[in-house]
Amino acid sequence: MLEYYILTFDSSNKSIKAERILRKNKLKARVIPIPEELSRGCGFSVKLEGELEIAKDFLKEKNIYSRGIYKFKEDSGRKIIKIGEK
Question: CB burial class (10 A; 0-12, 13-18, 19+) of residue 6?
Answer without folding.
Answer: buried
